[in-house]
Write a structure and sequence with these properties.
The structure holds two protein chains of two kinds. Chain A is of the alpha/beta class. Chain A has 15 helices and 17 strands. Chain A folds into two domains: about 220 residues, Mur-like, catalytic domain (UDP-N-acetylmuramoyl-L-alanine:D-glutamate ligase, 3-Layer(aba) Sandwich); about 140 residues, Protein-Tyrosine Phosphatase, Chain A (Alpha-Beta Complex), CATH 3.90.190.20. Chain B has a single domain, classed as 3-Layer(aba) Sandwich (Rossmann fold), CATH 3.40.50.880. Chain B contains seven helices and 14 strands. The chains are: A alpha/beta, B alpha/beta. The structure holds zinc ion.
Chain lengths: ~450, ~250
């Protein structure tokens, strides 16, 4: 009888799509939410594409999914995906509803889904990806994600046994996921800027999984991302099946080497974070059977989406909007590190208070002490404007990070923060907003833009 | 400060979740003469050679808890001796369970702590409990407000009659949601489920602790700013309109 429920759910959801269209409502996830309400095991019965690719991990899954989607589309596939919806079960359900006929037949041969790590529980019992890309696992929201080992355990428990994994060998936490599953590894060989010892506050895998002695690294990028080994018992991180080599940031190129040859690829962004995304995408496509030549041609045609879009030149000054996920110490540390290495003198508007939390409780600020605010203690950073409900916490954190008090300025409301800028000659102003303050971030940036145009002395 | 104050951090390589280690960094930044020693999973704990003035342990993963218990089990007699002798301990988050009894998971598995305190924990990995925390801390003449956060998969329960707690809860759960006494206290052992930089969030508590361990009346690092943030938070959490649960 459940199958009947499924059809009722499918038709109701299909009708809701029509209704949403007529009433000009935007509700990409709604059909999925509705279908799951009517038939909780909707995903079990929903028709799925013949080939399914899943992308998961703490960081980089959206960027990588989008890149893969563009490339598979270039190859002529009409790829079913959840780019416009959410990456949890209702988002996947919505995609399957959009992609299915009213008779419940899937219209697509290939499906590519970005999947939230914790949604594995609700998705994988009913959907068996052929390939699953695991980008990395790191600390995320304390409230939702606990710690990465917990997330790794969820994935191990729910990833279907028949799914072939494409895993980041430079993330030892990811390497431990679903040990029984067939897998290939990707990683990046030693490159310029590598270090040997972790300098970050977060280091989530410090001990050898076999003997508990301190792990060392042949090379390390940030946090625990690098090539680990144990100097005591000989434990080693897995070898790469797909190795990123010859990273050339000046030419923006990288080679990816595997048993059958080497491909020469275009980088889309110079940050190490994004270089991993490129290598992971190449590894997945190679695994799917694409030749290096073919993938190279895809990369040639990829739009450099987003990498420079957030940057705007206004007179002698530059305005840069960057997403620094609130409550995600790992991701925000990457942003701070990135800013600190860019040329030029800077001012920063730090909008890192979680706006969403203010509505129903008060933000858990523990993440501030997992996050490397120390990266902001740089000569080139001249002024940091603190604003929003957690500004007193940010102030104390920055002082403890060694930032001199005279470099801090304050504004209660985010929208007034631009008034605290000095707007010196050749200034680079960074507006750092969170996922729940994108609109506010845009308004603050607009105000900065006006001030820059106004040529204040 | 007449003598060198020594703080021993237990297993910083695994007991380091949620910014907990900042507690000790903050004491060190406030009082640079403090010596901080680290005890690791491999090798003998520092406390076996010399009893420190404060032993600290922060939040762990569930696997980390098992490793810590496995390691400390052989030193249980010494730990009990130190607690009875009044050595100061500050234990935050689920590190508290390392010193308790059974941890029963809803998936049917079971872990066991050092069984120093008569408490047991119930764990549900699919239900994370999140709340803000507001309490009173009273010690002799000293009384102060405490603010902080809880984020955990477990709650602990006393085996028999409830023992002494660390804090008297005003808002949020105690050792478990049914009681207001929070944490476990015996002599100078302070174990609390409150996570993260408790001492940074509560400068009066940091000052009290520094005095307790013999550092005297210390001016904290950025005490003025810490007090400002603390007072604002006490006010915010005391406001009934502030929601308390995630
Ligand atoms: Zn080893």
């Amino acid at each position: 009888m459940e199958i009947l429920r499924y059809y009722i759910a499918l038709w109701a959801a299909k009708l809701s799509i029509v209704a949403l269209k007529i009433t000009k409502h935007n509700g990409t996830n709604f059909p999925g939410v509705l279908a799951l309400k009517i038939c909780p095991r909707f995903l079990k019965y929903a028709a799925k594409p013949e080939k399914i690719i899943a992308v998961t991990g703490t960081n980089g899954k959206t960027t990588t999914s989008n890149m893969l989607l563009d490339m598979l589309t270039m190859d002529g596939h009409n790829v079913l995906n959840n780019k416009m919806g959410s990456n949890i079960n209702s988002g996947i359900a919505s995609s399957l509803i959009y992609g299915s006929t009213i008779f419940g037949k899937c219209k697509h041969k290939v499906g590519l889904f970005e999947i939230d790590e914790r949604s594995a529980v609700r998705v994988f019992p009913y959907m068996k990806p052929d390939y699953m890309l695991i980008t990395n696992l790191s600390r995320d929201s304390i409230m939702r994600n606990g710690h990465p080992e917990y997330i790794g355990d969820i994935l191990t428990k729910y990833i279907p046994k028949e799914t072939k994994l494409v895993v980041n060998a430079d993330c030892l936490i990811s390497c431990g996921i679903a040990p029984e599953n067939e897998r290939v590894y990707f990683g990046i060989e030693e490159m310029e800027g590598d270090i040997k010892e972790c300098i970050n506050l977060i280091n989530d895998i410090q001990i050898c999984p076999d003997c508990h002695n301190k792990l060392e690294y042949e090379y390390l990028r940030y946090n625990h991302i690098g090539k680990a080994y144990c100097p005591v018992c000989g434990f080693k991180a897995p070898e790469y099946d797909y190795a990123g080599v010859n990273v050339n940031v000046a030419d923006m190129t990288i080679d990816v080497k595997d048993a059958e040859g080497t491909g020469h690829y275009k980088l889309l962004n110079e940050s190490v974070f994004n270089i991993y995304n490129v290598v992971s995408a190449v590894a997945l496509l190679r695994q799917m059977g694409y030749s290096h030549e073919k993938i190279e041609s895809f990369f040639e045609k990829l739009n450099i989406v987003g990498s420079r879009l957030h940057e705007e030149k206004i007179g002698d000054k530059t305005l840069i909007k960057l997403l620094a996920k609130e409550k995600n110490a790992f991701a925000t540390s990457r942003v701070f590190d990135y800013i600190s290495t860019l040329p030029g003198d800077k001012e920063i508007i730090l909008m890192n208070s979680c706006q969403g939390d203010m509505k129903h409780w008060s933000e858990n600020t523990c993440w501030l002490y997992d996050c490397d605010f120390e990266f902001l203690n740089q000569d080139c950073i001249k002024n940091i404007v603190l604003c929003g409900p957690r500004r007193l916490d940010h102030k104390l954190r920055l002082l403890l990070a060694g930032v001199p008090e005279e470099k801090l300025s304050y504004s209660e409301k985010e929208i007034d923060a631009p008034d605290q800028l000095k707007l010196f000659e050749n200034d680079n102003v960074y507006v750092l907003y969170g996922t729940d303050s994108i609109g506010l971030g845009n308004r603050v940036a607009a105000k900065v833009r006006e001030l820059m145009k106004g040529g204040r002395d | 400060m007449d003598k060198t104050i020594r703080i021993e951090v237990l297993f910083p390589e695994i007991a380091n979740l949620y910014g907990d280690l900042e507690n000790i960094s903050y004491l060190k930044k406030s009082c640079p003469e403090i010596e901080v020693a680290e005890t690791h999973l491999v090798g003998e704990p520092c406390f076996m050679e010399k009893t420190p003035d404060l032993i600290y342990m922060g939040t762990l993963t569930e696997r980390g808890q098992r490793l810590a218990v496995e390691k400390l089990a052989q030193y249980k007699a010494k730990i009990v001796e130190m607690i009875e002798a009044g050595v100061h301990f500050l234990v935050t988050g689920n590190a508290l369970e390392v010193f308790g009894g059974k941890i029963t998971d809803t998936n049917g598995s079971e872990d066991c702590g050092l069984e120093i305190f008569p408490i047991h924990a119930k764990r549900d990995m699919m239900k994370r409990f999140n709340s803000l925390y507001l309490a009173k801390f009273v010690d002799g003449e000293t009384a102060m407000d405490i603010v902080g956060y809880k984020s955990q998969f477990t709650h602990s329960y006393w085996d028999g009659e409830a023992g002494e707690g660390v804090f008297d809860t005003v808002r949020g759960p105690g050792l478990n949601p049914e009681i207001t006494k929070e944490g476990v206290r015996r002599n100078n052992f302070l174990g609390t489920y409150v996570i993260g930089p408790v001492l940074v969030l509560n400068p009066p508590f940091a000052k009290w602790l520094l005095k307790e361990i013999g550092a005297g009346d210390v001016e904290l690092a950025f005490e003025k700013e810490a007090m400002e943030a603390y007072e604002a938070r006490v006010k915010e959490y005391s406001d009934e309109n502030t929601g308390f649960y995630y």
